Amino acid sequence: MRIFVTGASGWIGSAVTDELLAGGYEVLGLARSDASAASVSAKGASVLRGDLDDLDSLREGAATTDATIHLANKHDWAHPELSNKAEREAIETIGEVLAGSNRKLLLASGVAGAVPGRSLTENDASPFHGLESPRGGSENRAFEFVDRGVGAVSVRFAPTVHGVGDNGFTKIFVDADRAKGFAAYIGEGTNHWPAVHRSDAARVVRLGLEKAAPGTVLHAIGEEAIETKLIAEAIGRAFDLPVRSISADETVPQFGPIGTFFGMDIPASSARTQQLLGWVPSGPTLIEDIEGGAYSAS
């Protein structure tokens, strides 16, 4: 099978590309720059030049392959409305191409819509629907194509997909703490974050391609609920920093605009995903990665 992967040179996408190639698949990777194209090509994958704003490239990739894995995202924190628009348009474009073909469309989504008193599960519907929603409501929009013969599957990733080379949330928090001279958690630090190692996340995607039925929600969650105080303490140990609580009002000055996410309580389970796919997380934990030097490079 030949698989079209958007975001093929990205943090998760490059691991997914490796996982697919190792599994005997051919990969056509979307690349927006010469550097990205070189990275994808070096892995042994084919390259399609384009980006999320180039809808013709998305049409070509989806039309000429046996399945699509959509992992690219603009991550424009300053202009989230642009990211949301691009994400929704990408799903609509790919969905229209795949309509009636029964080919798979796996899309990246996020763990959101916390349920008070328990962990979010795969059975909990996404609360996001419209263009104004995070990711443009892409999960629900993709599932609208299931009745039109598209094998849409949503992969909800933990907010931190960690490992050596991670430049996501954990790296941002580490860098902010080092710049401020102390590792911070908000309030009592008893709110929870789920996490997954990058290698485990890539396996969920590959297994989802092989086993998940249209309309399925998968949770790429290795650890269900890590107290944020424990994350801050691990950063403190790794970088010899004092650890202290900050108030909600100090969150943005400490971490920047995305710091508010660190104050969220968003435990999430992957029990159903593990059972469905026969998947067992086996990578290092987030604390092990932090303390083991995964975030030590400046």
SSE blueprint:
Elements lengths: L1 E5 L4 H12 L3 E6 L2 H9 L3 E4 L5 H9 L3 E4 L9 H19 L5 E7 L27 H6 L7 E7 L2 E3 L6 H12 L2 E4 L5 E6 H14 L4 E5 L2 E5 H12 L3 E4 L4 H5 L15 H7 L8 H6 L7
Parallel strand pairs: 1-2, 1-4, 2-3, 4-5, 5-6, 6-10, 7-9, 8-12
Antiparallel strand pairs: 9-11
Helix pairs in contact: 1-7, 3-4
Overview of the molecule:
By secondary structure, the protein is α/β, with parallel strands linked by helices. The mean pLDDT is 94. The chain has helices at residues 11-22, 34-42, 55-63, 80-98, 138-143, 169-180, 198-211, 228-239, 251-255, 271-277, 286-291, and strands at residues 2-6, 26-31, 46-49, 67-70, 104-110, 151-157, 160-162, 183-186, 192-197, 216-220, 223-227, 243-246. It contains eleven helices and twelve strands. It has a domain at 2-159 and 196-222: NAD(P)-binding Rossmann-like Domain (Rossmann fold, 3-Layer(aba) Sandwich). The longest helix has 19 residues, at 80-98. 37% of the residues lie in helices and 20% in strands. Strands 3-2-1-4-5-6-10 form a seven-stranded parallel beta sheet, with helices on both faces. The chain has a three-stranded mixed beta sheet with strand order 7-9-11. Strands 8-12 form a two-stranded parallel ribbon. Helix 3 (55-63) packs parallel to helix 4 (80-98).
